[in-house]
Description:
The structure holds two protein chains of two kinds.
Chain A: H1 39-44, H2 60-67, E1 74-76, E2 81-82, H3 94-105, E3 111-118, E4 121-128, H4 139-154, E5 159-165, H5 173-193, E6 197-206, H6 207-210, E7 219-222, E8 228-229, H7 233-240, H8 251-256, E9 262-263, H9 266-280, H10 297-316
Parallel strand pairs in A: 4-5, 5-6, 6-7, 6-8, 7-9
Antiparallel strand pairs in A: 1-3, 3-4
Chain B: H1 3-13, H2 19-26, H3 34-41, E1 44-48, E2 60-67, E3 70-77, H4 83-88, H5 96-112, E4 116-122, H6 129-133, H7 136-148, E5 154-163, H8 164-168, E6 175-179, E7 183-185, H9 189-197, H10 203-210, H11 214-219, E8 225-227, H12 238-256, H13 261-273, E9 278-279
Parallel strand pairs in B: 3-4, 4-5, 5-6, 5-7, 6-8
Antiparallel strand pairs in B: 1-2, 2-3
Helix pairs in contact in B: 3-12, 5-7, 9-10
Amino acid sequence: xxxxxxxxxxxxxxxxxxxxxxxxxxxxxxxxxxxxxxxxxxxxxxxxxxxxxxxxxxxxxxxxxxxxxxxxxxxxxxxxxxxxxxxxxxxxxxxxxxxxxxxxxxxxxxxxxxxxxxxxxxxxxxxxxxxxxxxxxxxxxxxxxxxxxxxxxxxxxxxxxxxxxxxxxxxxxxxxxxxxxxxxxxxxxxxxxxxxxxxxxxxxxxxxxxxxxxxxxxxxxxxxxxxxxxxxxxxxxxxxxxxxxxxxxxxxxxxxxxxxxxxxxxxxxxxxxxxxxxxxxxxxxxxxxxxxxxxxxxxxxxxxxxxxxxxxxxxxxxxxxxxxxx
Amino acid sequence: xxxxxxxxxxxxxxxxxxxxxxxxxxxxxxxxxxxxxxxxxxxxxxxxxxxxxxxxxxxxxxxxxxxxxxxxxxxxxxxxxxxxxxxxxxxxxxxxxxxxxxxxxxxxxxxxxxxxxxxxxxxxxxxxxxxxxxxxxxxxxxxxxxxxxxxxxxxxxxxxxxxxxxxxxxxxxxxxxxxxxxxxxxxxxxxxxxxxxxxxxxxxxxxxxxxxxxxxxxxxxxxxxxxxxxxxxxxxxxxxxxxxxxxxxxxxxxxxxxxxxxxxxxxxxxxxxxxxxxxx
Lengths: 326, 280
């Protein structure tokens, strides 16, 4: 499955570019600093370059493995498949493109939805996959995102989505456009039921997905360096002939302009989603993964030291049960 | 019948029309634009300006008008007729300020219980650096979300080009109408051709493939009704076109007024939740 990841995901405008992304042969080579990794190193590093921090693209399945507690993922609506309502043919018929994407990715469409636990909190989850026709949103993606929201409402869970999409799927015409409104309706259902929604934006999130549910998270988290824009840089350059700033549409630019809550590096993403989910659920604080897991004897000593220091510090505080001067 | 079957039926009957002809009529420079309609269908119309944050977008017109005896909030894309006006209106391509102005007027309508009517006519949201920096995606998403939750009746009508998210941003309504010679599409035929055919010159083929005509959109369940135009198209007789449009809007508002607000909201969500074609 991981073999199909293309490193070179050229930014696309609205709606999705579905032309085959040019495949760079050296897919485990960092495009920024040229560091090369073995596949097992890539998996262990969550596909982040340990030298320069470049975030390689991640398939939906691998993202789920990275994000949820082991063995808690349960997929729903897995049998939904695209119809071809317009009987759309460009250089090839749409069903052929779908079939090829299915073969290439082992997926039925560009999103996986289901339930899982993140930091031991049950959540509804929707994770998009850019390798399936550029993560484009057609009727199946719209329906599945809607069902994920439905699950969240029925089982009183938060919804977590991870977007990665070029936009609406042109081959489904105006029905693809309407999936924007459909996923917005799903968000409205969440809001009416009082369920929180955490939206993670991965590279790239553009066009119809950027301008519908993905923008509407109660908290919006982006991965470093992700392109997040309505129109891609190429479309902007062609249409307006403006000078495009180097960081056009990137997560960092979006953060500066106040459109996202935070930029979270992938190794910290799971913890951040867990903390937010627990806080938004108004539950007990999420216990972060201990910094010193599986304490050996020396580390236990450090742990005792920290604990001891903490006790001594509290000793210095005014005595709440004492003479009442505090 | 599924959407696909209805479309096939339409094609066999030859009723799908010539897609490119529809595109040309929808873009006809003498076609009435939003303000042409509002000045005709309202007894009094006052335009409101500014998004109360950073600017006023001339590509979107918003305001309140007296329509058949009641105050209605209107929002619509606005194109220009001569070169100077076209540039001023940015060819009907809104920036985030435009959608924020729309939202400001939606909120006003909701608070004072005025129905909302939107008129759609845009080649798409403006793809500019500044527009992106000021939050184009978020503005389009939030405008849809706000419309989805309005307590008042909402009617939207495509009066020319309904292209991409820039059109849908003001298109979430209880009743969605299209005038006879208009188009509603996920992307302009030129944009589609540039991406799928790698040649913007293939726009005619893209238009035929996208099925953007009113008849096709009705068959796909995306719109509720086609509003007739005077013979030859709305550009031939603005007065008659406005009258036909006003009648259709008035009939829908009258019907929607009979529903309780919570029911209207529920049905509006359900309407969009049911859109799509897939196999399970």
